[in-house]
Amino acid sequence: xxxxxxxxxxxxxxxxxxxxxxxxxxxxxxxxxxxxxxxxxxxxxxxxxxxxxxxxxxxxxxxxxxxxxxxxxxxxxxxxxxxxxxxxxxxxxxxxxxxxxxxxxxxxxxxxxxxxxxxxxxxxxxxxxxxxxxxxxxxxxxxxxxxxxxxxxxxxxxxxxxxxxxx
Length: 167
Fold this sequence. Notes:
There is one protein chain. By secondary structure, the chain is mainly alpha-helical. The chain has a domain at about 55-120: Winged helix-like DNA-binding domain superfamily/Winged helix DNA-binding domain (Arc Repressor Mutant, subunit A), CATH 1.10.10.10. Helix content is about 60%, strand content about 5%. The chain is built from 6 helices and 3 strands, in the order ααβααββαα. The chain has helices at about 20-45, 50-65, 70-75, 80-90, 115-135, 140-160; strands spanning about 65-70, 95-100, 110. A 3-stranded antiparallel β-sheet has the order 1-3-2.
């Protein structure tokens, strides 16, 4: 088991240094895991309780109002029949609506209901509070380094996903 490095940049595992790429990867994995656990635990108190795929579908619908079922299926990595059943359940829960498209009567768009939007806003507040609680335990002099590192990671993720970025 690796432990996150201390303020001296060293890792505690049989005296190994945090300088190797494998050690860095392991530390990032462990930190990400703790962040994911905190993120998911905040979702457990939200009502209605939804699966991660249902939450992902609602988030996609919020970010892309009117997205069609095929687009939603692609964005959440599900087959269209699975996405359709997912939308059936979200619609039955009053969180999502199917509406006829404005450009094509055959096209069906997916829109969050006011209840769906309120549920996502409540979840965002819960997650914000959970992350805030953890950050209170990060020493003040390390918070900027954490922010800077997370921003760099997010930017690198975007570059890695863009085949034309040259990286």
